[in-house]
Design goal:
Length: about 280
């Protein structure tokens, strides 16, 4: 495989040889934020929105971000150019930076941009739908995409054991919030329902809401665990999974166990939307 080049604190380096100071707060305290997007036709999808979310995430954890949107954009474009991948995943990571006392954030955080080839999920996930499990967990500061994905790693280990492809976080109030790296939607009668509180505002979620706006009644409200019994369809969304139909949650089969009609309409609309980007 060709060598992958990353941007790390002002330099373009071979990814295998990239390094951060050992006292970086990202390493010793898990203090930092990131964002993740992909290209379609070589163009970063919703780049501005992802950079804005990165800025919002940083603000929510009090992390100074001394780069403008334009500077980050230019660094991403240059990293993409140096790698020349047909389609790329892009990970923008901002860690707290090197700290003398291992806890006080320094003036200058670290900025890393990583790219990798886009790999597709199995076609059958989209054609037949997938199984999810639920876990009683919540993310810390859910509207921020922080470096702390410990709950996601634990939940994904559990979902793997249950032959599921993702886990949905359920909070103390029995609200089904979101997946480990996905947003969650259900369809009930004519309504498309997705939670608004205590979730990350996924960029794919926004696109889906936009595409659905003139076709379905959109309701942003809590989804209770008990609502899963009466829903007609369910799906998850994310930059790398796009729109993925869900046909089973824990032991519950969703409707007839096949991807729902409205989900398939949205999948087609999303495909059309991303394929004509240039
Ligand atoms: C917790 C969480 N929710 C939702 C999403 C989906 O966001 P997006 O559509 O911007 O990829 C992600 C993405 O990684 C995530 O980590």
């Amino acid at each position: 495989m060709a060598q992958v080049i990353s941007y790390v604190n002002g330099k373009y380096v071979i990814s295998d040889q990239a390094s951060l100071p050992i006292n970086d707060l990202g390493i010793v305290r898990g203090y930092g934020v990131f964002d993740y997007l992909r290209t379609y036709n070589g163009i970063p999808f919703k780049l501005q929105e992802h950079i804005q979310r990165l800025q919002k995430s940083a603000e929510l954890i009090g992390l100074n971000l001394p780069w403008s949107t334009q500077e980050i954009e230019a660094l991403i474009q240059e990293t993409l150019k140096r790698n020349n991948l047909p389609e790329a995943n892009i990970r923008i990571v901002v860690t707290g930076g090197a700290s003398d006392d291992f806890i006080t954030p320094p003036e200058q955080p670290s900025l890393v941009i990583l790219v990798s080839p886009v790999s597709q999920y199995q076609v059958q996930y989209y054609e037949q739908g997938v199984k999810l499990i639920t876990v009683q967990m919540e993310r810390f500061i859910p509207q921020a995409k922080t470096l702390n994905y410990i709950s996601a790693i634990i939940a994904l280990q559990q979902s793997k054991r249950a032959n599921a492809i993702d886990a949905l976080y359920v909070n103390q109030q029995s609200h089904v919030l979101e997946g480990t790296t996905t947003n969650f939607f259900i369809v009930r009668d004519s309504q498309l329902i997705t939670p608004k509180e205590n979730v990350l505002y996924g960029i794919t979620r926004n696109v889906v809401l936009e595409l659905a706006k003139n076709r379905f009644e959109i309701v942003e409200q809590p989804i209770y665990y008990s609502d899963l019994n009466s829903c007609d369809e369910a799906f998850i969304t994310s930059s790398n999974k796009e729109i993925m139909p869900v046909v089973q949650i824990d032991d519950l089969q969703i409707s007839n166990g096949k991807p729902g009609e409205k989900t398939q309409i949205l999948m087609q609309l999303f495909k059309n939307y991303t394929s004509c980007l240039s």
